[in-house]
Amino acid sequence: MKRIVSLIPIVILLCFTFGCESKDDDFDEGKMVAALSDEDIAAIKAIGPAIDKATLAMDIDAIVELYTENTLLMNQNEPIIQGRVGVAKYYKAFKNVTMKEHKHELLEVNGYGDIAYARGAYKVAYVLENVAEPIIDEGKTLLILRKQPESSWLISIFCWNSNLPLPD
Predict the structure, then answer these.
(1) pTM for the whole structure
(2) 97-134 confidence digits (pLDDT tens)
(3) Residue 123 located in a structural domain
(4) What total number of domains does the chain contain?
(5) Do 157 and 144 contact (CB within 8 A), yes or no?
(6) CA 6/CA 104 separation, integer angstroms
(7) Which parts of 68-165 fold into alpha helices (H)?
(8) Does residue 56 lie within any of the structural domains?
(9) Secondary structure (3-state) at 72
(10) For residue 148, how many C-alpha atoms fall within 13 Å in the half-sphere facing its CB?
(11) Alpha carbons 87 and 112: distance in angstroms, whole number
(12) Residue 76, SS3?
């Protein structure tokens, strides 16, 4: 008798599990979202060197073109910067900065269909006006990218933070 009583919760759980299982009659295997192609991954990884080239030249127009219209730039220690106009304004604030090094490598890329993420690492060195010693920083990045109708990939969300410890 105890065995039967102890099996009742298991039977009820199984009935509940299979009874609540939903069947999607509209599911079509042909409509499954495809993984990124080798071409997509290469195009996304090319964004790192494009960021480097544009930033070293402080070519704000080229920088802005790497982002979607409604992009979010999530830098450390400041509010979110939104849209291409916000990105342009952010970079224009660096008019007194001379970039000496800018290396952004996308280490991992994955996604499906028209959305992808990329995990990266950066190293920068720059000189401020009237400051002799360069400032060197390195850290990590996370990008969310969207495939555009003409098949290019643009940054939708860009988040970065430094590996350097906070000053005492």
Answers:
(1) 0.79
(2) 999 999 999 999 999 999 999 999 999 999 998 888 99
(3) yes
(4) 1
(5) yes
(6) 60
(7) 83-92
(8) yes
(9) strand
(10) 13
(11) 26
(12) coil
Is residue 139, in this structure, part of any structural domain at all? yes
The residue segments making up the domain with residue 132 are 35-162
Q: Which residue has the tokens 């195009």?
A: 43
Distance CA 65, CA 55 (A): 12
In this structure, is residue 52 part of a structural domain? yes
Instruction: Dig out the tokens for 66 from the structure.
Output: 């790497």
CATH number where 60 lies: 3.10.450.50
Q: What is the DSSP string of the chain?
A: -HHHHHHHHHHHHHHHHHHS----TT--GGGPPPBPPHHHHHHHHTHHHHHHHHHHTT-HHHHHTTEEEEEEEE-TTSPPEEHHHHHHHHHHTTTTEEEEEEEEEEEEEEEETTEEEEEEEEEEEEEETT--SPEEEEEEEEEEEEE-TTS-EEEEEEEEEE-SPPP-
- Quickly state the pLDDT bin for 153 (edges 50, 70, 90): very high
Q: In the structure encoding, which two tokens stand for residue 133, read together?
A: 């010693």
| Cα–Cα distance, 164 to 124 (Å, whole number) | 12
Q: How far is CA 55 from the centre of its chain?
A: 18
Would you say the C-alpha torsion 123, 100, 82, 40 has a positive or negative sign? negative
